[in-house]
């Protein structure tokens, strides 16, 4: 039977979906021997999914001299080999020739491969590392959504999700918390439990008479929206501690009302003096002061300027006694 | 500075109980010379912390000397008699056997085991407790153990991470972060190390070295071209010495009461 016209996108994927991997391999092996040009053409199909290439990888390796693979496939095979052998040098060599090819191939691997997560342990490791390469080497966070899907899908199955969960946070983008918070609405209790575990540090919990203390997905979004300029990446992970808080609010930046990092880059002598005093306060007072400062800043810039011109102990007194908006 | 029941402590009161060069004495010296005030309710509380810290150090060295190997979670392995390897690479103790024996087996038959550094640290804490508690108390507190990095920890261990700690003490678990780790070797994103005292540290998979030795090892696993070195964080992970101490001191009296009621006082175990 000629499977090549079964599906207008990728005939190999269609064959795999309809007949299974055994028949896919059988068909491909036969085709390579009978018509290597056609075999090359269908495996080079731009719509081929990475999972199918992975399944055919041993056959491709065996018949490599007969096949004329395109750049995507040759690059994917080299990437897979470097991941399995843990040899960065393979990638370095590839990088010198065509950096863009590696990046686009990694995007293809993750973008089309995530639906096959769980094929086997080696495949999962390749996906995890492809994600890490995208995020840490190419600073490409466009595929964080499928990565989060993988994290939760593996959590449901009880399989290894340590590296891919770390990869999600290594995007350093607080918006991943909103994507994780979507799982708080899941019908699967394991999803809810795991999302709460990952988001424990976000102050968005409330008590429900029937469900106890639970986390509000809208509360997570609100917290991020309210504090966006001041949220910084901490780099904490489950390798380091049992309750990692990968993001936290920089109270000093919130106090001075400048985005994370900006205060150290462009602080005036007066701001420096305030920040020096601020650093000597306890964490509780820092939080109160920074919240009050940012609230005033957004309410009325003149009020904020007047309040900021006060000595720090006076600022603390006002912030501690104030509830809601005040006029200093 | 050490304060017990509101009174500053003269180190000589305790120092005589410990030999020169011992972990306990080094810990005492660091506590006393600190600008931070360490408060204890009773002398026994302090003594228990010194004992457990010493046992953590000894359990680290014992684990290093066992043939327990470094493996990624994907390739982790354990003795199936005592542990079930879970799909995520963790180890779950056999509910039909003593969890105390399951921990002891890791030290006794280390060649059958392999995992990453974070799990090794939890094994060190449990290993120290097998040396501190009787088997009966250990099994009462930890009837089932799940070893998988820092997740799913038994609450009775009371493990907590403390930021900006004033002093690093022998028996503390510290962390060296490798922010520019090579994505191909994510297991080297950092290294958990136990402070052994005398400027030496144990980190599973790297060995026993000064901090610089670990930084050097991690730096060899950075993304190419990185100029950002691995570095030691000023945080520490510790078990809850006080609550574990309470269990230690109260266990005999609880047993005494139970057996006294049943007229079987002679079977009371020691720690």
Summarize the structure in words:
The complex is a heterodimer of chains A (328) and B (271). The radius of gyration of chain A is 26 Å and the shape is elongated. The model of chain A is unreliable at 1-7 (pLDDT under 50). In chain A, strand 1 (205-208) and strand 2 form a beta hairpin. Chain A has 328 residues and is mostly helical. Chain A has 18 helices and four strands. Chain A has helices at 11-19, 21-34, 36-43, 50-62, 71-85, 88-113, 121-137, 144-157, 162-169, 175-181, 189-198, 217-227, 251-256, 262-265, 269-279, 283-299, 301-308, 312-321; strands spanning 205-208, 212-215, 231-233, 247-249. Chain B is built from eight helices and 15 strands.
Low-confidence segments of chain B, given as residue ranges, are 263-271
State the low-pLDDT regions of chain A, or none: 1-7
- In N-to-C order, the SSE pattern of chain B is EEHHEHEEEHEHHEEEEEEHEEH
Number of strands of chain A: 4
SS-based structural class of chain A? Answer: mainly alpha
Rg of chain A is: 26 Å
H/E element sequence of chain A: HHHHHHHHHHHEEHEEHHHHHH
- Number of E strands of chain B: 15
User: How large a portion of the residues of chain A is in β-strands, by DSSP E?
Assistant: under 5%
Assembly state: heterodimer
Characterize the main sheet of chain B: 5 strands, antiparallel
Query: What percent of residues of chain B are in strands?
Result: 15-25%
Strand order of the largest sheet of chain A: 1-2
Number of helices of chain B: 8
* Contiguous helical run count of chain A: 18
What is the CA–CA distance across the termini of chain B?
30 Å
Order of strands across the biggest sheet of chain B?
A: 13-12-11-10-14
Question: Which structural class do you get from the secondary structure elements of chain B?
Answer: alpha+beta
Describe the main β-sheet of chain A briefly: 2 strands, antiparallel
What is the typical, i.e. mean, pLDDT of chain A? 90
């Amino acid at each position: 039977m000629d499977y090549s016209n079964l599906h207008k996108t990728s005939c190999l994927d269609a064959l795999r979906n309809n007949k299974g991997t055994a028949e896919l391999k059988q068909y491909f092996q036969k085709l390579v021997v009978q018509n290597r040009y056609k075999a090359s053409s269908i495996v080079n199909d731009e719509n081929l999914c990475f999972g199918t290439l992975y399944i055919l990888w041993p056959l491709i390796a065996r018949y490599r001299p007969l096949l004329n693979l395109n750049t995507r496939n040759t690059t994917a095979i080299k990437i897979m080999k470097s991941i399995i052998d843990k040899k960065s040098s393979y990638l370095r060599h590839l990088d010198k020739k065509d950096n863009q090819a590696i990046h686009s191939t990694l995007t293809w691997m993750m973008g089309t491969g995530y639906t096959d997560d769980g094929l086997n342990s080696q495949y999962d490791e390749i996906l995890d590392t492809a994600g890490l390469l995208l995020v840490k080497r190419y600073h490409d966070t466009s595929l964080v959504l499928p990565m989060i899907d993988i994290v939760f899908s593996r959590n449901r199955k009880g399989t290894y999700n340590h590296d891919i969960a770390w990869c999600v946070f290594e995007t350093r983008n607080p918006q991943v918390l909103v994507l994780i918070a979507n799982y708080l609405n899941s019908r699967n209790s394991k999803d809810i439990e795991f999302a709460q575990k990952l988001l424990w540090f976000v102050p968005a919990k409330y008590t429900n008479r029937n469900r106890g203390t639970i986390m509000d997905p809208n509360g997570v979004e609100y917290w991020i929206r309210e504090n966006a300029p001041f949220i910084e990446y901490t780099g904490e992970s489950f390798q380091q501690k049992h309750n990692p808080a990968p993001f936290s609010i920089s109270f000093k930046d919130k106090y001075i009302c400048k985005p994370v990092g900006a205060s150290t880059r462009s602080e005036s002598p007066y701001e420096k003096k305030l920040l020096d005093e601020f650093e000597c306060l306890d964490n509780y007072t820092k939080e109160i002061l920074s919240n009050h400062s940012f609230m005033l800043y957004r309410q009325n810039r003149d009020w904020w300027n007047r309040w900021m011109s006060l000595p720090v102990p006076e600022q603390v007194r006002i912030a501690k006694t104030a509830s809601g908006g005040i006029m200093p | 500075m050490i304060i017990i029941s509101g009174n500053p402590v003269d180190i000589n009161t305790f120092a005589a109980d410990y030999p020169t060069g011992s972990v306990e004495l080094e810990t005492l010296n660091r506590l006393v010379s600190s600008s931070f005030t360490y408060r204890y309710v009773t002398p026994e509380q302090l003594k228990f912390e010194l004992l457990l810290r010493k046992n953590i150090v000894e359990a680290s060295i014992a684990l290093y000397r066992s043939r327990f190997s470094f493996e990624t979670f994907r390739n982790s392995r354990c003795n199936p008699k005592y542990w079930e390897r879970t799909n995520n690479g963790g180890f779950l103790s056999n509910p039909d056997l003593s969890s105390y024996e399951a921990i002891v087996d890791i030290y006794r038959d280390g060649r059958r085991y392999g995992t990453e550094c974070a799990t090794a640290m939890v094994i060190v804490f449990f290993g120290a407790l097998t040396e501190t508690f009787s088997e009966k108390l250990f099994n009462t507190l930890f009837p089932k153990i799940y070893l998988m990095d820092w997740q799913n920890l038994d609450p009775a261990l009371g493990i907590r991470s403390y930021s900006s700690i004033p002093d690093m003490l022998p028996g503390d678990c510290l962390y060296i972060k490798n922010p520019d780790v090579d994505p191909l070797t994510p297991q080297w994103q950092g290294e958990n190390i136990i402070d052994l005292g005398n400027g030496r540290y144990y980190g599973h998979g790297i060995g026993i070295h000064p901090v610089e030795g670990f930084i050097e090892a991690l730096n060899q696993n950075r993304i190419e071209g990185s100029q950002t070195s691995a570095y030691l964080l000023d945080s520490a992970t510790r078990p809850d010495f006080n609550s574990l101490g309470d269990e230690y001191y109260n266990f005999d009296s609880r047993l005494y009461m139970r057996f006294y009621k049943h007229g079987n006082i002679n079977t009371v175990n020691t720690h």
